[in-house]
Amino acid sequence: MAITATVTRAFTYATGVDISAANLNQLGEPTVTIDEGNVNITGGTISGLSSPIAIADGGTGSANAGAARTALGVGTLGTQASNAIAVTGGTISGTLMTLKSYAVAGVPSASPAGQMIYVTDGNAGAATVAVSDGSAWKVVALGATIST
Q: Which of 146, 98, 101, 148 has its CA nearest to residue 127?
């Protein structure tokens, strides 16, 4: 026999079953109905929801991590390790970029093409920016110092 009850603070429902060691099993497993319009959860865990918590209510509106990232507009960049980010589209703007700095003796492999580094002594001993063509690092002339 299942018991259905609406839970109200400070109120105890009668079951019609005497509470004694012999009768406890007659209570069965209670089913509790909670008015979802007035729920406040602090601490603990939430599980067994029949539908995901909506974005407007602080959830993701999704039942798994991939769908949550999609619902929240998080692309593949959101799942990459901080030391291995690959930006494959869009624009980087409004921020300073710092190139990885090397001395000529320690530059990495020039493959694949399109890499860019700062070389402290790569232009006849002077600092330069270098771009990889896939097999070698090519000097990018820095030119004159900026002035106002």
A: 101
| Per-residue model confidence as pLDDT tens for the chain (148 residues) | 445 555 555 555 566 656 565 655 665 666 666 666 667 777 777 777 888 888 888 888 898 888 998 888 888 778 888 888 877 788 888 999 899 999 999 999 999 999 999 999 999 999 999 999 999 999 998 777 878 7
Give the three-state DSSP class for 51.
Answer: coil
CB within 8 A of 28, min separation 6: which ones?
Answer: 1, 2, 3
> What distance in Å separates the CA atoms of residue 28 and residue 5, rounded to the nearest whole number?
13
Residue 143 one-letter amino acid: G
Q: How far apart are CA 2 and CA 15, in angstroms?
A: 10
User: Scanning the structure block, which residue is given the tokens 């949550």?
Assistant: 68
The two three-digit tokens of residue 113, written as one number: 């093409």
Angle at 92 between CA 98 and CA 103, to 5 degrees: 20
Mention every residue, 6+ apart, whose C-beta is less than 8 A from residue 108: 102, 115, 117
